[in-house]
Amino acid sequence: MEGTERFCINKSGFWKVLIVDDDNFIHRMLKEINKDLTFEDKGIEFYSAYTSQEAVNILKRNEDIALVLLDVFLEEKDSGLGLAKYIREDMKNTDIRIVLMTGKGSSSLQDEIILNYDINGYENKTDLFSKKMNTVILSSLRSFRDINRIKNNRESMEKVVSSISKLYEKDALNDFLISSLCHLSSLINQCKGRDECNINSFAAVRQGETHIFNIVGGTGKYKDSINKKIRETVSETDLIKANKIYNGGDHELFDNCYIARYKSTAGNEAIIFIENDDNVDYVDMELLDVFHKSISATFDNLCLNLEIEATQKEILYTLGEVTEARSEETGSHVKRVSKYCKLLAEEYGLSQRDTMLLTHASPIHDIGKVAVPDNILLKPGKLTSEEFNVVKTHTTIGYNLLKNSKREILKAASIVAHEHHERYDGKGYPRGLKGEEIHIYGRIAAIADVFDALGSPRVYKKAWVINDILKYFKEESGKHFDPNLVDILFDNLDKFLEIKEKYSDENAKVIGQASDNNNES
């Protein structure tokens, strides 16, 4: 026989208490005496179990039970003690409070049980039918609450620290803020254990040089507010609070919400807004301050790293364009190669980090050509074998220029420069690598470079038409190129052609002319 009885309906929920006793009189008396008992504005929800197995079933279905009032002599002499041991050792539940009840007084037995079992109280049943019961239940609930707060705060801090590992992922700034939003909410609202956080909260980032903040992620009623402005989303009262923090505050826990502002030395700014799920008297302000400082420091470091990476990317594009300009080719070639590499990397399944590195390293795949003499590099006719051997050195020269850098992008660029002329069948240069001996960066860059080179005019040839280019790739699949990547090229041909058109040399000239005209006006 199992049952549940609910008292004191309260919007904040209930504290769950499990009574385990084979005497129904005990259940009825405990529920009746404590039916009006509340703790922190929450009533008590009593669950009844009359055997050890019933108790186990209820505990498995209700992991948030706070207190078990357990008969020592349930069913058999040691059944209650066995259940207490099962809860601690088999269910690994050290949070729940266990108070043993007995109708047989024995100080020696009590001493033995308290010493050998992980329990939190040992009471005579006759005493429980008095006001003492209120003390037993309230002290147990308070202990359960404090244990869970400590655990929740520790777990939240660990999650905030672990979120630093996301610094180098795609859209890392937004990802970091959204992750921090969830961890802060778990601290403020004690929402541990929820599969999905339904607290109303959002993270927003300042747009450019304006004072406008757009939401980049949210939960609860703000879940669908991405890209909306803060001032269009929150109430007038909450907007006043947000402006207070923005205009000189740091972070503050208001009566109904928590608002924090983050500003980096690179000029980036963000705001986190979290509504309070309940009263905030229990929030550990010192720990919240530690959280805030940790997030602020990480936010600043992340923004600086992103600024450095953006500068590196710009320099690499510029170097790539300079290299191509020397061989009388447009800078659009390096843009197209970069876009092709990105598309191939994504469709191949490379990680976001690897895709980013290859995308921004590929523009300087021919950086070694700076050492190739003009009379060879710009020769309109066919190269002699000796001249071609000189051209081939650009792969090794480019590698040697970049290989000693400690920057990830330049390390990736050294691989691309070194291996983009290797062939899948092992007949390429400079090392004659074969198959997957060639780094995936090199295999991808080979397809991107050749696809664009064949379709573009050079001093020594005219541009090929698309049908001839596709025929060549079919013939060279498994020979010159990785067959899996060739399949990706054909499966996404429309996307390749879209890139080819968008970044065509003709479009680049039109854009350049428009810029010149604007400068004259």
From TrEMBL:
PROSITE patterns: HD_GYP (PS51832), RESPONSE_REGULATORY (PS50110)
Presence of keyword Phosphoprotein: yes
Keywords (A to Z) from UniProt: Phosphoprotein
Domain HD-GYP: 308-505
Cytoplasm among keywords: no
Positions carrying 4-aspartylphosphate: D71
Domain of life where this protein originates: Bacteria
Domain Response regulatory, chain residue ranges per copy: 16-140
InterPro entries: CheY-like_superfamily, Cyclic_di-GMP/3'3'-cGAMP_PDE, DUF3369, HD/PDEase_dom, HD_GYP_dom, Sig_transdc_resp-reg_receiver
PANTHER family cross-referenced by the UniProt entry: 3'3'-CGAMP-SPECIFIC PHOSPHODIESTERASE 2, CYCLIC DI-GMP PHOSPHODIESTERASE TM_0186-RELATED
Name the UniProt record assigns to this protein: DUF3369 domain-containing protein
Organism listed in the record: Tissierella carlieri
